[in-house]
Amino acid sequence: MQKSQTLGELRQTAYVSKGIKDELRDNLIEKIKNKENVFQGIIGFEDTVIPEIERAILSRHNMNLLGLRGQAKTRIARQIIELLDEYTPVVEGSELNDDPLNPISDFAKQKIAEMGDATPITWMHRAERYVEKLATPDVSIADLIGDVDPIKAANLRLSYADERVIHYGIIPRSNRCIFVINELPDLQARIQVALFNILQEGDIQIRGFKLRIPLDIQFVFTANPEDYTNRGSIVTPLKDRIGSQILTHYPKSIALSKQITAQEAKITADQKTAIEVGDLVATLIERLAFEARESEYVDAKSGVSARLTISAYENLVSTAERRMLISGGTKTYARISDLMGVIPAVNGKIELVYEGEQEGAGLVALSLLGKAIRNEYLEHFPDPAKLKKKSDPSAQQTVLDWFAEGNVVDLLLMEDEATYRKGLEAIPGLADVVERYTPALSPQDKLVMMEFVLFALAEHSLIGRNSLERSIQFTDLLGSIFSEKDFFNDPGNN
Predict the structure, then answer these.
(1) Is 2 part of a structural domain of the chain?
(2) Which of 43, 83, 86, 143 can pair with 27 through a Cys bridge, CB separation 3.0 to 4.6 Å?
(3) Please, what sign has the CA dihedral across residues 237, 241, 242, 245?
(4) pTM of this prediction?
């Protein structure tokens, strides 16, 4: 459409005044017909959340996205702007983004009455038609709706009975826009009450003024179910006025979770060139989050955000990069021992119950990592518990026998590639275990899988493992227990 500069020019075009909900609906219908994906980059919601959002838009509903933290609620809300027309006309100078063919503010009405077809108009891009407000307990009615401005009254010498003394809040200024309120339950109940008329009748009331401004807004709210009991609640009449409540969720599979992490992790070009992350290590990052969501130490009501795996992946890459720089290399492959570097990312992303607090965040994070390794091992190798019940002449038993003879392996956290390979290949039977059950791996992946077997055998209590400051030591299980007893019985260590 040609961008008209005046009201008269606009009237000569094909422009038709349309409410924002109808605008969203019509554009969505067009995209569905053309098989276009509206919500780019939203993974795992194709058959659950996205169809419900599309139904809400087709129904012209305001909506509430309800879900635990890190479930892409805000990202979804921000992508709805792609369903708006690219540009929309506005009366120039209007605070309320007045439609030139359907003005609602006193300013726009008077301007059109005075200038007629010569009324200047501007064009607002759809990116400007998105407004977002984080609900906090200190938000006031004046912030959202508006109030009388005594300074404006004094400067313009206006009576307080004059409508021009009103300073409009963020909601009226969002007329013809998508307005998002994040964490809705954090709004005080009396502030939520102020939204009743806007949602139901589309109008506002400010102080004693008899205003009826038919605002045209698409509301999208986000909320966390935890908020309903811990910090506040959505008052029942307000919930009743929200057309659709849509439940979000975490990725339902590790494969989907890996796609999200790969898409969202901020990895520099240099890191992508120098650091290679194999499928096994990437899977363990995701499995760690799945274990956390099932853990008795983690508060299930709070949830485990997808940001945990994103931050953990970034930490993993940085851990491998630091090791590479210290050892003087130019390229490296992420190792199982590099996963020790993700613990800080996990500590800040999980809310612990009382028992978890007693254990400590660091120990809980290590325990979750251990469970991830233990369970992932069963995806590639036989269950060690079943092998222990019978004589096992396999290569795995060769590894166990070697450690039982008193042999010890120290994997230095900062060792170079050659030393890393030499240490793993020196363990009899370890390469055979990997070759027998995972034969289709690349040489580098086989080394990481060999290291993984050591960690997994320790997690299954078949060998011992001691985490030292600069290395991870693997020993015979009984020898590890006795060494711990000697350590605690030594007076010099008390």
Answers:
(1) no
(2) 83
(3) positive
(4) 0.85
